[in-house]
Amino acid sequence: KQEVTQIPAALSVPEGENLVLNCSFTDSAIYNLQWFRQDPGKGLTSLLLIQSSQREQTSGRLNASLDKSSGRSTLYIAASQPGDSATYLCAVKRQAGTALIFGKGTTLSVSS
Amino acid sequence: DTAVSQTPKYLVTQMGNDKSIKCEQNLGHDTMYWYKQDSKKFLKIMFSYNNKELIINETVPNRFSPKSPDKAHLNLHINSLELGDSAVYFCASSPRGVRNSPLHFGNGTRLTVT
């Protein structure tokens, strides 16, 4: 059974810092991995999607990496801003047609 | 334009009542989902429909019954509500067979059972 773990559960940093959020999964046979952002009282917004054949994806200040063999992904946020404050969720899809399995998220707080 | 919309946003009701949550997507996606986010913020899949056909049904009490009148709508009906049903319910959609297309979520329905 696939399980997704995110560490740390919460993180507070000053503005301008570079930071890394970690995600691990127990079954390396995945179809893709997605990172989402959730703001309080809102739905989830997709940030990055990495296919199983890819090693990383980049969007602006965000970079996500995938190491299937070790069951790990990282989300790197460069030059953090207060607007980055949110909960970041990692999710994996086992195969096409199956649902995403989510981690419990990392709640990030960036202070100005 | 809201891509995935859910109504109502908030729902407060008493134990034993029956309630429905509606979801509509205007993205032309074939697949729709219902997820439950509990008080610890853990998101768990409940159901998935593809072109009005149920394809995923996790271990969910049969008091929960999804209904898909067409591929743009997936409603969730809950009978005999219990305190433990209090949570935020998210609807989501995705296109079928498009590998690099992420899931699109609605803003959630916060259900409180008293």
Sum this structure up briefly:
The complex is a heterodimer of chains A (112) and B (114). With 112 residues, chain A is mostly beta strands. Chain A is built from no helices and 11 strands.
Radius of gyration of chain A: 13 Å
Low-confidence blocks of residues of chain A? none
Mean pLDDT level of chain A: 94
- What's the shape of chain B? globular
Q: Biggest sheet of chain A, open or closed, and with what strands and sense?
A: 6 strands, mixed
State the helical fraction of chain A.
under 10%
Find the count of extended strands of chain A (DSSP E, 2+ residues).
11
Uncertain stretches of 5 or more adjacent residues of chain B: none
- Taken in chain order, the helices and strands of chain A follow as EEEEEEEEEEE
Greatest contact pair?
Answer: A-B, 24 and 27 residues
Q: Could you outline the blueprint of secondary structure elements for this entry?
A:
The complex is a heterodimer of chains A (112) and B (114).
Chain A: E1 4-7, E2 10-14, E3 19-25, E4 32-38, E5 44-51, E6 56-59, E7 62-67, E8 72-77, E9 86-93, E10 100-102, E11 106-111
Parallel strand pairs in A: 2-11
Antiparallel strand pairs in A: 1-3, 3-8, 4-5, 4-9, 6-7, 7-8, 9-10, 9-11
Chain B: E1 4-7, E2 10-13, E3 19-25, E4 31-37, E5 43-50, E6 53-57, E7 64-70, E8 73-78, E9 87-94, E10 104-105, E11 109-113
What does this structure look like?
The complex is a heterodimer of chains A (112) and B (114). Chain A has 112 residues and is mainly β. Helix content of chain A is 0%, strand content 57%. Chain A has strands at residues 4-7, 10-14, 19-25, 32-38, 44-51, 56-59, 62-67, 72-77, 86-93, 100-102, 106-111. Chain B is mostly beta strands and 114 residues long. Chain B has strands spanning 4-7, 10-13, 19-25, 31-37, 43-50, 53-57, 64-70, 73-78, 87-94, 104-105, 109-113. In chain B, a hairpin with a 5-residue loop joins strand 4 and strand 5 (43-50). The radius of gyration of chain B is 13 Å and the shape is globular. Chain B starts with a strand and ends with a strand. Chain A binds chain B through residues 31-32, 34, 36, 41-46, 49, 51, 87, 89, 91, 96-102, 104-105, and chain B through 4, 33, 40-45, 48, 50, 55-56, 58, 90, 92, 96-97, 99-108.
